[in-house]
Amino acid sequence: MSIRVLLVDDQPLLRQGFRMILESQSGVSVVGEAGDGHAAVSATRRLLPDVVLMDIRMPGKDGIDATREITTWATHAGQAVRVLVLTTFDLDEYVVEALRAGASGFLLKDVPPTELLSAIHVVAAGAATVAPSMTRRLLDRFADRLPSTRVSVPPRMHYLTEREREVLRLLARGLSNAEIAHRLVVSETTVKTHVGNVLTKLGLRDRVQAVVYAYENGVITPGKADD
Fold first, then answer.
1. What angle do CA 159, 165, 169 make, to 5 degrees?
2. Do 201 and 123 have their domain in common?
3. Percent of the chain with pLDDT over 90
4. Counting C-beta atoms within 10 Å of the first and last residue's C-beta, which end of the chain has fewer, N or C?
5. How many Å apart are CA 197 and CA 170, to the nearest integer?
6. Residue 106 resides in a domain
7. What is the count of structural domains for the chain?
């Protein structure tokens, strides 16, 4: 089945460009467009896309608020709608907030067509499109914007085994599954199982949210290297 995509951007020419790219490929179909956050939320509920390509900076309701509303609604409604944020700058200060709002990742607007299509497929499959190293770089840069309040045991952390906590810490440091497997001297399949358990037990959507969770709850300290 084709991946259903909703395009959200306040610039019609950009929407047209993305539409031309996507509709030239098999397996992807553009089911609608929206020029602002309010229209994006309404179109999402009406059209039920698999992936929403979301601009951040728009008049009225911006992409962050729209992402938060869409992901919250999708969770309660049991709809598998994923949001992929588009931004002009790879260190845009709004990106962190977008990830915290429930976005599954972000891309630059000048991303090559092949990477855009690949990212859409990855997100539609339930994974995240932001490379762990980039997520770490963003969170390190904007660590001062994250909540400073810490608790002795972060919410739900007591559900994790010691090995799962270790996997979470390494994941949040930007390590891939292969790198974690090498560090822990286990198979990559075992790591994938641990990552899946971490996401399930913490009630998280994907690796991106796991990294945000780790930073927000003091599981790791921004900018501090591993021992």
1. 140
2. no
3. 44
4. C
5. 15
6. yes
7. 2
Summarised one tens digit per residue, pLDDT across range 163-220 is: 999 999 998 877 888 889 999 999 999 999 999 999 999 988 777 778 778 877 878 7
80: domain CATH number?
3.40.50.2300
Same domain, 79 and 117: yes
The per-residue pLDDT for range 126-167, each reduced to its tens digit, is 776 665 555 556 656 555 555 544 444 566 888 999 999 999
Q: Is 125 exposed, middle or buried (0-12, 13-18, 19+ CB in 10 A)?
A: exposed
Residue with tokens 């395009």: 7
Question: Could you report the per-residue pLDDT of 39-48, keeping only the tens digit for each?
Answer: 999 999 999 9
Domain carrying residue 174: 150-216
Q: How many CB atoms lie within 10 A of CB 141?
A: 15
Q: Which two tokens stand for residue 48?
A: 């039920």
For the residues of 188-213, what is the DSSP string, one character each?
HHHHHHHHHHHHHHHT-SSHHHHHHH
Whether residue 36 is found in the same domain as residue 125: yes
Helix axes 12-23, 113-124, angle to 10 degrees: 80
184: CATH: 1.10.10.10
Residues 101 and 199 in one domain: no
Q: Which of 195, 9, 31, 18 is nearest to 119 (CA)?
A: 18
Rounded Cα gap, residues 95 and 87, in angstroms: 8
